[in-house]
């Protein structure tokens, strides 16, 4: 893994030899502006991991995004490479429907210490609740950022992160009552303690979030990216572009066209090989190939093969000849396309 390659990925062009507050703020903001918060992989047959090398290859080399355990684990490696003093912490996300925090640490954050002060770095909460810069660990202090006003509260037992939003102005009234429009002006995001953790601490939560039918990440695909003026997010088939204003957020929502949904269905068939005809053609190809190989072996070990002409030897081995001609005919007929690539175009 190469720090310079990561810095190129987030489009950092400054000097990175100083582990100071300015550099921390810069790389934090560039990370959320260039690396999406997303769970698309688990809806495409992939499985998210806590293996740092795999995460690095996915996000840095393949220009993908990731969810909190991936992005913030990668960011902890960046902090280490740049010489920052940091501690991994575990957070419990607030369930607004049940009005309580989740029972396990399912959110990965980093605590960074610079010049005697501590800051919460979190590059992967996503959507409207994504902090652009680290938050100073001080209780009750309003910390305004473009997405809203963030606030850390220490109740003596744990820290709680809150956010105060602006009013949401939905441009298309057809979406005014959408469940994706968060109309709460103040909301609780998550709680945490200062108990140090390591990456293995989040393995159970990572497995649960991508297997439990009650997990939000299993119910909907999510992909969001912060922009200089707001953020963009695709949740399921609903695309939203949010623009931050002084006293409100402009929310432009659209439904992805049906023809793209049809393409997605065809793509799923392709990846999963769901078309029944594919299995039948594969079986035919396997049977003919085995027959051809068996006939070829008998043809080669026959002592008379070298004593007679080529065509005479084929005449003496009709099983091999017929199998070989059939196999060649199948390829001319396009069987290689039928067993490898079902149609991806919507009908």
UniProtKB/TrEMBL annotation:
- What are its GO cellular component terms? Nem1-Spo7 phosphatase complex
Q: What class of enzyme is it?
A: transferase
UniProt keywords (A-Z) are: Acyltransferase, Membrane, Transferase, Transmembrane, Transmembrane helix
Kindly list the residue ranges recorded as spanning the membrane. Answer: 283-301, 313-335
GO MF entries: arylamine N-acetyltransferase activity
Coiled-coil segments on the chain, per record: none
> Which InterPro entries does this UniProt record tie to the protein?
Arylamine_N-AcTrfase (IPR001447), Arylamine_NAT_domain_sf (IPR053710), NEP1-R1 (IPR019168), Papain-like_cys_pep_sf (IPR038765)
Q: What is its EC number?
A: 2.3.1.5
UniProt-listed Pfam families? Acetyltransf_2, Tmemb_18A
**Family, as annotated:** Belongs to the arylamine N-acetyltransferase family.
Record protein name field = arylamine N-acetyltransferase
């Amino acid at each position: 893994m190469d720090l310079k390659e990561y810095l190129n990925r987030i489009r950092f062009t400054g000097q990175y030899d100083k582990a100071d507050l300015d550099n921390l703020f810069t790389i934090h903001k560039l990370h959320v502006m260039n690396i999406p918060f997303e769970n698309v992989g688990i809806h495409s047959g992939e499985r998210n991991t806590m293996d740092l090398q795999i995460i690095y290859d996915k996000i840095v080399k393949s220009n993908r995004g990731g969810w909190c355990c991936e992005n913030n684990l990668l960011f902890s490696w960046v902090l280490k490479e740049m010489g920052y003093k940091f501690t991994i912490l575990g957070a419990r996300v607030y369930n607004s429907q049940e009005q309580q925090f989740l029972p396990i640490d399912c959110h990965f954050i980093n605590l960074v210490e610079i010049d005697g002060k501590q800051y919460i770095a979190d590059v992967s909460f996503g959507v409207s609740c994504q902090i652009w810069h680290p938050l100073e660990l001080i209780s009750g202090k309003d910390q305004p950022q473009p997405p809203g006003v963030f606030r850390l509260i220490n109740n003596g037992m744990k820290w709680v992160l809150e956010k105060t939003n602006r009013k949401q102005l939905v441009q298309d009234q057809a979406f005014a009552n959408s469940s994706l429009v968060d109309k709460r002006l103040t909301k609780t995001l998550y709680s945490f303690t200062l108990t140090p953790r390591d990456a293995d601490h989040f393995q159970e939560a990572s497995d649960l979030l991508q297997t439990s039918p009650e997990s939000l990440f299993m119910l909907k695909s999510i992909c969001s990216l912060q922009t200089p003026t707001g953020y963009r997010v695709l949740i399921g088939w609903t695309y939203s572009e949010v623009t931050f204003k002084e006293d409100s957020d402009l929310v432009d929502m659209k439904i992805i066209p049906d023809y793209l949904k049809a393409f997605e269905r065809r793509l799923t068939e392709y990846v999963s090989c769901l078309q029944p005809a594919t299995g039948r053609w594969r079986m035919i190809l396997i049977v003919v190939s085995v027959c051809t190989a068996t006939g070829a072996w008998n043809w080669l070990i026959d002592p008379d093969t070298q004593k007679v002409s080529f065509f005479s030897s084929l005449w003496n081995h009709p099983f091999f000849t017929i199998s070989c001609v059939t196999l060649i005919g199948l390829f001319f007929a396009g069987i290689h396309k039928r067993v490898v690539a079902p149609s991806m175009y919507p009908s």
